[in-house]
Amino acid sequence: MSLKVDISFKLNGVARSATVPVETSALEMLRDALGFTGTKYGCGEGECGACTILVDGASLNSCLLFAVDCNGRDVVTIEGLDAEPKAEAVKKGFVDKWAVQCGFCTPGMVVQATHLLNQNPNATDAQIRRGIEGNLCRCTGYVKIVEAIAAARDAAPREA
Amino acid sequence: MTIERYVAPETLEEAAAILSQGGATILAGGTDLMPQVHSGKLKFKSVLMNIRRVGELQGISMQGGMIRIGALATVTDLLTSNVVREKLPALTEAADQFASDQIRNAATVGGSLCNASPAGDVAPPLLVYNAEVELVCKPDSGMKVRTLPLAEFFTGPGRTRMEPNELLAAVRVPVPKAGYVARFVKFGTRPALDIATISIAIGGVKKGRALHEVRVALGAVAPVPLRAALTEAVLEGKALDAGLIDQVAAAARDEIKPISDVRASAWYRQELVHNIVKRMLTDVAQG
After folding, report:
1. In this predicted complex, what is the ipTM?
2. Residues B160, B70: one domain?
3. Which of A102, B73, B129, B287 could be bridged to B77 by S-S, CB 3.0 to 4.6 A?
4. Is the domain of A98 the same as that of A34?
5. Could you list the residue range(s) of the whole structural domain that residue B17 is in?
6. Under an 8 A CB cutoff, do A134 and B4 touch?
7. CATH number, residue B264
8. What is the mean pLDDT of chain B?
């Protein structure tokens, strides 16, 4: 029986409490305990980016994050990006540019692309490619995904 | 062993006191710990200590003639630090080539060094910049700090001279002298998320056409990130012409005894070191 720890944190803007086994990843907690299944389990070792979430505004692989380490932090998953204009633009870009095939990488891609454009609203196409280097897609060949993120960038008024 | 206690101290003294009781697994960014536990390479001790909330371990700052990089500084912190970019550009370069954005946002400098991978990306530039590590412990009522040159820190893959009751608190790097130039090159099959096939850092004070106080550090060619003393001796203080560059490149190739593994054969690693040292020094000579 593994040790369980009580934590409280903000999930998609709402205060949450959870009791988590100490060795559990944030990904397991989100998907299995809290039912937020938009975040995907891909490789489990930080190579594929399907599990990307935002914690205190930075994108992280939730499979490498200990759930206990969410205590006191601000966690945002794909489900929490609804109200965010940048994320809306990214999602529209993915639809308009047909950047979704099987869709498994898409939540992680959208979270990472949103983070990228929040950090660098005028990211060049080369910077977009670098920005998603931690996200694997086995369908699209990335061309449509880069176009989708570039469309989201171009949809916003240019920032100085 | 299963974890019996989880602690998240907020001060260095608390963290050191917990370590002095023995048997704690240290959690910082988690990017190495989680896969190591899952693969069975590492077993949890009875206490899991999350040090991420310890204030004294955060941040990058100038203190006198030293740049202090807190153990919890992330690779993204390195990449975006103006002090690092201005004074230690080869370290910025290594941070830029480190894994992916998601991992850079979590992985810490202290964790990277304590995991002591022979292919760790931040070790070669830190060796070239003559970094030292600050190790703290609390054997009795008082805190003890010792510093160790990074060149003496690594003892083998995953092994260091850090005692079980010690915590790596910071890396301290002397501010390089005026005229100091340094380069870092990592070679892998793709830039992102690849473990280095080999990596090379070279630094020295450039006077006229020569490099002085030269340091050369190599990653992924030995059980530890390595200072290449014989190569340094060939390079030291001599005019960087084509003949010398050839001699240095040959010395570097002959100095290392790499292994063959999934990433490359020993022969290929030696050729890479030869060719990339040559390219780097040609760049330094022209710069």
Report:
1. 0.96
2. yes
3. B73
4. no
5. 5-50
6. no
7. 3.30.390.50
8. 95
**Cβ neighbours of B9 in A, within 8 Å:** none
Do B186 and B278 fall within a single domain? yes
Question: Percent of chain B scored above 70 by pLDDT?
Answer: 99
The verdict on residue A160 lying in a domain is: no
Judged against a pLDDT cut of 90, whether residue B191 lies above it is answered with: no
B190 CB burial (10 A radius; 0-12, 13-18, 19+): exposed
What CATH number corresponds to the domain at position A106?
1.10.150.120
The CATH number of the domain holding residue B18 is 3.30.43
| Model pLDDT for residues B71-99, shown as the tens digit of each residue | 999 999 999 999 999 999 999 999 999 99
Confidence of residue A159 (pLDDT cuts 50, 70, 90): low
- pLDDT tens column, B219-236: 999 999 999 999 999 999
Q: What's the domain range around A130?
A: 84-155
Helix axis angle, B242-255 to B266-286, nearest 10°: 150
Interchain CB contact of B115 with A (< 8 Å) = no
Of A80, A99, A118, the one marking the end of a domain is A80
What per-residue confidence (pLDDT) applies to A160? 54
Whether residues A13 and A72 share a domain: the answer is yes
> Chain A: nearest CA to B36, how far in angstroms?
9
- Judged by CB atoms closer than 8 Å, whether chains meet at A64 and B100 is answered as no
This prediction's pTM: 0.96
B66 shares its domain with B32: no
Tokens 């930080």 belong to A46
Q: Are residues B76 and B40 in the same domain?
A: no
Same domain, A97 and A122: yes
Q: Which of A52, A66, A119, A120 is the best mutation test for B, with the most CBs of B within 10 A?
A: A66
Contacts of B27 in chain A (CB under 8 A): 66, 69
Which of the four pLDDT bands, split at 50, 70 and 90, describes residue B23? confident
Q: Tens digits of per-residue pLDDT, B147-182?
A: 999 999 999 999 999 999 999 999 999 999 999 999
Final residue belonging to a domain, choices B126, B147, B174? B174
